[in-house]
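Private note to self, pasted from the team thread so I don't lose it. C-alpha cells:
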C-alpha cells in the first residue's frame, strides 16, 4: 500500500520536510540573544529559510512604525546568526524570515524579555533585573515530593479582594506577595496574603500560568493564562508596568524571593502542549509545521482542544521544552513544574527532562503533570504518551494527578451531580460512574503497585508518582461540588456556609491528608472556596475567581482542620512514605457499609512516639462503632483528630463510636 493511500498528500509532504529538519537540528545553548561585553549576538534555528534579518525597533508596541535598523543574518550550522557592537541594548527586535516568495515577521522563540503584549522581543541583559539580595535567595526543599503540601493559586486571585488589606497598587500583581503582614480590613486577627500562607503552613505555591500568554496586558479582563505566547518571559499583566520589559522580570523575581524568604517553594504551571494560535504562532512562523503534530490529512492535530498539539518528540521541540524549564530553574529559581495536559507529551521527553535537571544540579526541582489529553493525541510509535496508562514508563520522580482519589472522594468531576464517598453516595448508581469503597481504598494507598498488586487501577510505582488531591482550578470547587450534589434538583443552590456541607468537607480533608503521595489543594479549599457553581471560570469575572478573605474568617473551623491535619501528616512519617512499604502494610477494616471507611497505617519505626494510626470516616446516615485492635498493657490508643479539631496534641479516646458525617483519627503510643 502506498503511503499516500494511508496519509493525504499534504501529510506526506510535511513528513518529508520534517525528516529533513530532524537531520538539520542545532544543540547549542545560545539560541536567542546573548551578550559578550558590548557585543550582542542573535541566533535562530530555521533551516528552510532563504534569508533572515533582525529588525530593531525603538519600542515594544507593535502599533508603532518605529523601525530603527535591520541586520542581515548568516546561516551557520543550520542556524541564522549575526553579531553587532552597535548600541542596541534596551531596544526591541523581531526576526524577518524569507522563504521563497513569502516574508514573515516573528518574535524570537527564545526571547527572554518582551514589550507590552509580547509582540516584540526586548534586548535586555537579565543580570540588570535581579532585585536586591536575589543571589542570596534560597529555598530549602523537602527531601522528597511526598513531604509536599502544594497550594494551587492564580496570581490575581491571591490579592484582588478589596478586603484583603493588600495595597491597591499591588492587588492582582506579583508585588502583592511582597507585603508580609496583611489582614482583613475590619479584623487584624484574620491574616490574609503572605501572612495567611505562613499561618496555614504550606511548603509550595503552585502558580497557574505566569509566563507571557496571549492577552491584552493593559486590560482588566480575567484569564487563567492557558494561552501560551512567549514561554520564557513573565506575564506583563501582573507587573506594575507592562510596557517596561525589565519591570515584569524584576517583580516576578521579587514575588519568588518573598515566597522563598518564608521557605515556600514556587511551582510554575507550564503549558507546552499547545499554543494560543496556530498558523501565525511564533513557532509556525519560524519553522512552518515542524513544532506541531499533524493528523493523517496533514492538518494540525488537536489533542489539546485548543486548535493544535505540539510535537514534543521532535528534536527541536523537545530541546525547546528542556531549555525553557532549565532557564526558569536557573534564572528565576523555580522549584517545580506542573505540566498541563502532560499526556500530550511523550515519555522520553519527560524522562530526559528529569535527567537533565538532575545532571545540572536541580535534583530538588519537582515535576508533575496531568496524565491525560483533551480527548486524543497523535503520538506515534515508538513514542508513547506520558499518560496514566504509561506511568510505569515514567521516571519515578515524575508525578501525576490522581483523579482516582479525587473522584472516589467526591464523585466524577465531569458530571456535576454525581457523588461518591463524602456525599454518602458510594455504591449508589450515578449518572457517569459509580464508586465503591474498594476504589477509595486503592486511591488512599496511592494506587501503588506493591507485591503482586498489578490491577488496572494500580498504576503508580511508588507514592512519589502521585499527587493526592480533591479539587483544583478546573471543574467545580470542592464546596460547590458538595452544594450541587447535596441540593435537590428542585431547589436553588446556596453557596453560603452550611453545617452539613461543612462536615462532608471535613471528611474529604481527613481522607486527603492520610493518603499516600504529595498533597495538593486548590487555594481556598480549606475555607470552602466557592465560584458560585462556575465549573470553568477561566475567563469569568474576577469577582468569581478571587479569594474571598472574609470567607476565610467565616470558615475558621474548616481551616483549623486542614492546618491540624497537615501538622499530623508532618509528624507521622508513614503518611509521607516515598516507598510502597506503608501502602503494602495498610489494613482496611470491614465496615459492611460502602459509606464507612476505616484503615490502619502502621509505623515501621518503633522508636517514634506514634507506633500506629487508625483513621475512620463515616458519611452514612447511621452511627458505627470501631473495635480498636488489641494492645499490650503498656500501650494505649489516643485521639489526635476528629471533626471538631485536629493537631498533634493527644487526648484520651473516650469512645470509638463514629457519628454520621464525622471522622476520627487515633494513634497508638506507649503509656
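Design output:
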Amino acid at each position: 500500500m502506498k503511503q499516500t493511500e494511508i496519509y493525504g498528500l499534504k501529510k506526506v509532504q510535511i513528513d518529508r520536510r520534517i525528516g529533513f529538519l530532524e537531520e538539520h537540528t542545532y544543540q547549542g545553548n545560545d539560541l536567542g540573544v546573548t551578550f559578550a561585553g558590548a557585543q550582542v549576538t542573535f541566533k535562530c534555528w530555521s533551516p528552510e529559510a532563504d534569508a533572515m534579518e533582525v529588525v530593531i525597533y525603538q519600542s515594544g508596541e507593535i502599533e508603532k512604525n518605529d523601525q530603527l535598523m535591520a541586520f542581515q543574518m548568516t546561516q551557520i550550522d543550520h542556524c541564522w546568526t549575526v553579531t553587532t557592537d552597535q548600541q542596541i541594548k534596551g531596544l526591541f527586535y523581531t526576526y524577518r524570515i524569507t522563504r521563497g516568495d513569502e516574508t514573515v515577521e516573528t518574535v524570537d522563540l527564545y526571547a527572554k524579555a518582551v514589550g507590552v503584549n509580547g509582540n516584540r522581543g526586548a534586548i535586555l541583559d537579565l543580570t540588570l533585573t535581579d532585585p536586591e539580595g536575589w543571589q542570596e535567595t534560597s529555598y530549602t526543599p523537602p527531601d522528597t515530593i511526598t513531604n509536599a503540601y502544594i497550594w494551587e493559586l492564580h496570581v490575581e486571585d491571591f490579592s484582588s479582594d478589596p478586603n484583603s488589606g493588600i495595597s491597591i497598587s499591588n492587588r492582582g500583581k506579583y508585588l502583592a506577595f511582597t507585603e508580609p503582614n496583611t489582614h482583613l480590613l475590619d479584623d487584624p486577627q484574620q491574616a490574609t496574603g503572605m501572612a495567611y500562607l505562613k499561618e496555614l503552613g504550606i511548603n509550595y505555591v503552585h502558580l497557574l500560568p505566569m509566563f507571557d500568554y496571549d492577552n491584552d496586558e493593559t486590560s482588566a479582563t480575567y484569564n487563567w493564562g492557558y494561552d501560551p505566547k512567549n514561554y520564557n518571559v513573565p506575564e506583563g499583566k501582573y507587573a506594575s508596568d507592562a510596557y517596561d520589559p525589565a519591570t515584569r522580570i524584576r517583580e516576578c523575581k521579587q514575588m519568588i524571593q518573598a515566597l522563598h524568604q518564608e521557605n515556600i517553594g514556587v511551582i510554575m504551571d507550564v503549558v507546552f502542549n499547545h499554543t494560543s494560535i496556530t498558523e501565525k504562532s511564533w513557532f509556525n512562523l519560524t519553522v512552518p509545521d515542524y513544532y506541531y503534530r499533524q493528523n493523517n490529512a496533514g492538518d494540525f492535530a488537536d489533542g489539546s482542544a485548543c486548535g493544535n498539539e505540539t510535537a514534543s518528540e521532535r528534536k527541536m521541540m523537545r530541546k525547546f521544552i528542556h531549555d525553557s524549564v532549565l532557564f526558569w530553574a536557573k534564572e528565576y529559581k523555580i522549584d517545580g513544574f506542573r505540566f498541563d495536559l502532560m499526556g500530550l507529551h511523550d515519555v522520553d521527553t519527560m524522562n530526559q527532562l528529569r535527567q537533565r535537571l538532575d545532571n545540572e544540579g536541580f535534583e530538588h526541582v519537582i515535576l508533575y503533570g496531568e496524565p491525560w489529553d483533551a480527548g486524543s493525541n497523535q503520538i506515534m510509535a515508538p513514542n508513547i504518551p506520558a499518560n496514566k496508562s504509561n506511568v510505569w514508563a515514567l521516571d519515578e520522580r515524575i508525578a501525576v494527578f490522581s483523579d482516582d482519589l479525587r473522584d472516589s472522594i467526591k464523585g466524577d468531576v465531569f458530571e456535576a451531580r454525581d457523588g461518591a464517598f463524602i456525599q454518602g453516595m458510594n455504591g449508589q448508581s450515578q449518572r457517569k460512574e459509580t464508586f465503591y469503597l474498594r476504589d477509595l481504598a486503592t486511591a488512599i494507598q496511592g494506587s501503588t503497585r506493591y507485591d503482586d498488586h498489578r490491577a488496572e487501577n494500580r498504576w503508580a510505582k511508588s507514592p512519589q508518582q502521585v499527587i493526592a488531591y480533591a479539587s483544583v482550578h478546573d471543574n467545580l470547587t470542592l464546596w460547590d461540588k458538595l452544594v450541587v450534589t447535596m441540593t435537590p434538583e428542585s431547589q436553588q443552590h446556596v453557596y453560603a456556609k452550611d453545617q452539613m456541607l461543612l462536615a462532608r468537607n471535613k471528611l474529604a480533608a481527613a481522607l486527603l491528608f492520610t493518603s499516600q503521595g504529595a498533597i495538593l489543594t486548590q487555594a481556598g479549599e480549606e475555607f470552602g472556596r466557592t465560584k458560585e457553581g462556575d465549573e470553568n471560570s477561566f475567563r469569568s469575572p474576577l469577582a468569581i475567581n478571587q479569594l474571598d478573605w472574609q470567607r476565610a474568617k467565616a470558615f475558621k473551623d474548616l481551616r483549623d482542620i486542614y492546618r491540624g491535619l497537615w501538622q499530623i501528616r508532618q509528624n507521622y512519617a508513614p503518611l509521607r512514605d516515598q516507598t510502597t512499604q506503608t501502602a503494602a502494610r495498610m489494613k482496611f477494616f470491614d465496615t459492611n457499609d460502602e459509606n464507612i471507611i476505616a484503615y490502619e497505617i502502621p509505623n515501621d519505626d518503633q522508636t517514634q512516639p506514634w507506633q500506629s494510626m487508625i483513621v475512620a470516616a463515616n458519611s452514612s446516615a447511621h452511627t458505627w462503632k470501631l473495635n480498636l485492635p488489641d494492645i499490650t498493657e503498656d500501650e494505649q490508643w489516643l485521639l489526635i483528630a476528629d471533626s471538631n479539631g485536629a493537631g498533634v496534641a493527644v487526648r484520651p479516646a473516650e469512645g470509638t463510636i463514629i457519628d454520621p458525617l464525622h471522622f476520627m483519627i487515633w494513634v497508638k503510643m506507649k503509656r
